[in-house]
Amino acid sequence: MNAEVTLPLFVATPLILAAVAVISPWKILRDILHIAVPVVGIVAGGWLFAYTAMNGTIAHTIGLYPAGVGITYAADQFSALMIVTTMIVAATANWFATATGETNSRFYASLTLILVTGVNGALLTADLFNFFVMIEVMLLPSYGLVAMTGGRNRLRGARVFILTNLAASTLLLVGVGFVYGVTGAVNIAALAGVGAAGGPALVALGLVVIAIITKAGIFPVHTWLPRTYPLSSAAVMGLFSGLHTKVAVYMLFRIFVVIFDLDDRFTWLITILMVVSMILGAFAGLAEHTIRRVLAYQMVTGMPFILVMFAFAPDNPHAALSAGIVYTLHHMITIGALILNAGAIEETYGTGRLARLTGLAHRHPWTAAIFAAGAYSVVGFPPFSGLWGKVLLVIAAAEPGDMRSVVVITAIIVASFGALLAMLRVWRKVFWGRPMRGVPAGLRIRKRLLAPSAALMVISAGMFVAAGPLIDAVHTATDQLLNVEAYTAAVLGDDAVGVVDPENPTGGNR
């Protein structure tokens, strides 16, 4: 059996097991399924990474239709690496949800498995319309998860979340429709190089990109994220932090490399938007009043750290994109750990408000240690993954040696300082100071609540220690991402139809 025929199983398996979870009357089975499926996904993603390392990009078209007609799934080392990391975050977030009792809701497990279905499909699809479909598969259970978990204001947050994502999804669908109307194709490989040609195709693709950056929470369409994520439960916010925005980042990488062919016309536009987004996200958290709202702005400031590398990719594609991927992996693990750590505090004390918490370092040294480790990683201090992420970003940005380099490196330093201030503020308010009064002497944060965030921080520390193998893996993944010829050959095969001529994208298909 050829390995490529297994790609649809990454989508079908969690979807089928989501149905099993819905009809199962046994909570223990539901708890097992919603943790075991992402764990199996980690193993399967690791196998896929190893297989594509040996055999290159693989692809499978559903129903064995000609490429360009059927729905195609494709995998390379980049998509495999993203699957592994998203499934790590999903497994730990679901582990935390089980520990807090959120899975007492009959539909919680099945909703998270449907979300995993959409994530895998979005990371493997080679078709813009199918990407839209998989985004909707992700969003439908997310609407339920946002509305059914969290505090008393969760419905207010759910309303903003739903309206924003519906608007972005509508724009995405319109953009994909215009792309098809202009070029006659929505297959990513068939559109290779079309964005660099300009004209109506560029405008249509611009709508797609705007919709995706809205979902990624990039300035100026970023405020919905810190207004909605913290109003859900910590388990759901941890799940979303590693899945929703990072799927958007993944597709932006794929579109920029394959469809835009590393076009250098937008370097200053990208630079300005990302620099502003960095600074806003870094310092806006200083005005927030809960731990998770501060962390939500660290999510906002993390996205431009990744995407600003597009401004330097035309100069040195390998170094810039590798730096962006390393920072993506670090950010998923670290922010997930911090959110779940904050969730353990909320579960124990019933609040995450900075004004109501103090002196927790005396009562809960392990909780304080996990938060301090996460804060070190966010800022870029050793011995955690954030150091290598930011070092690689600065090296890639410095290479051109022009004004862009000066602006971006300055912004990275200033935004990192802002993140440090935000983390210090949380530390001073929540962990420092005198022990809290009126708290039962025996009250402790349970180990089972701390274990998920501790596991993620161990991974972050492991990424620091094993920087050599990690960076080697990212380099090979970047090589395959940049090998557009191999990607298009695998996706389109020998019988493709509807392939667009990049030199004349509106003149009909070849």
TrEMBL record:
GO terms of biological process kind: ATP synthesis coupled electron transport
InterPro entries: CPA3_Na-H_Antiporter_D, NADH_UbQ_OxRdtase, ND/Mrp_TM
Family under the similarity heading: Belongs to the CPA3 antiporters (TC 2.A.63) subunit D family.
Record lineage: Bacteria, Bacillati, Actinomycetota, Actinomycetes, Mycobacteriales
Organism: Corynebacterium yudongzhengii
Protein name: Monovalent cation/H+ antiporter subunit D family protein
GO MF annotations, alphabetized: NADH dehydrogenase (ubiquinone) activity
Keyword Cell membrane: yes
Keywords: Cell membrane, Membrane, Transmembrane, Transmembrane helix
TM annotation in the entry: 6-26, 33-54, 74-95, 107-125, 131-148, 160-182, 188-213, 234-260, 266-287, 294-313, 325-345, 366-385, 405-428, 449-471
Compartmental location: Cell membrane; Membrane
Chief location bin: membrane
Cellular component aspect of the GO annotation: plasma membrane
Domain NADH:quinone oxidoreductase/Mrp antiporter transmembrane: 127-408
Membrane topology, from the record: Multi-pass membrane protein
